[in-house]
Amino acid sequence: xxxxxxGEQISSIGRGLCVLLGISLEDTQRELEHMVxxxxxxxxxxxxxxxxxxKSVMDKQYEVLCVSQFTLQCILKGNKPDYHMAxxxxxxxxxxNNFLEQLRRAYKPELVKDGKFGxxxxxHIQNDGPVxxxxxxxAATVDPKQLTKLEKQQQRKEKTRTKVPSExxxxxxxxxxxDDPSASSGAEGDVSSEREP
Length: 197
Description:
- Keywords: Cytoplasm, Hydrolase, RNA-binding, tRNA-binding.
- Its EC number is 3.1.1.96.
- Strands 6-3-2-9-8 form a five-stranded mixed sheet, covered by helices on one side. Strands 1-10-7 form a three-stranded antiparallel sheet, with no helix packed on it.
- The longest helix has 18 residues, at 89-106.
- 28% of the residues lie in helices and 20% in strands.
- The chain is of the alpha+beta class.
- A hairpin with a 2-residue loop joins strand 4 and strand 5 (80-82).
- The protein has a domain at 16-141: D-tyrosyl-tRNA(Tyr) deacylase (D-tyrosyl-trna(Tyr) Deacylase, Chain: A, 3-Layer(bba) Sandwich).
- The radius of gyration is 18 Å and the shape is globular.
């Protein structure tokens, strides 16, 4: 994969899964454990005889590259993206690190790579197929009343903000490439995550 002139390459993998992880306000340890299991056991690769959709990343001993991407929690208000359902940066970083730790513990630490949390990155994905799978934790784990309460709390916070336009740290750190806003799999070549100079 190509990198920007003077850019710093943070992580790269060969064949495997690129996981773009969007963490929402209501995500808990339960959702985290579900996603780790699903990612590692999802059968998206072919077996030795060429039969498709029969092997997981663990079966093939392929790599996993994780990139934190709050923009997956986008809610459109007209034509304007709204990210109030994304977990705030300080909490999300802790959640993301916990996610990585559990993924490494359930698989092999050396096969799990990650981007730099909160960094302004260009993510280059060579999609094999292309195959893109969207994974969500079970809807049953979300309490609609609690979700409404969280939204109302967030709306109250938004109303108290100053009206002077300013970018939040999460908005500044939004990935430039939003063409593929979900987990992709089976990259034939390198999958890399790079930070701009």
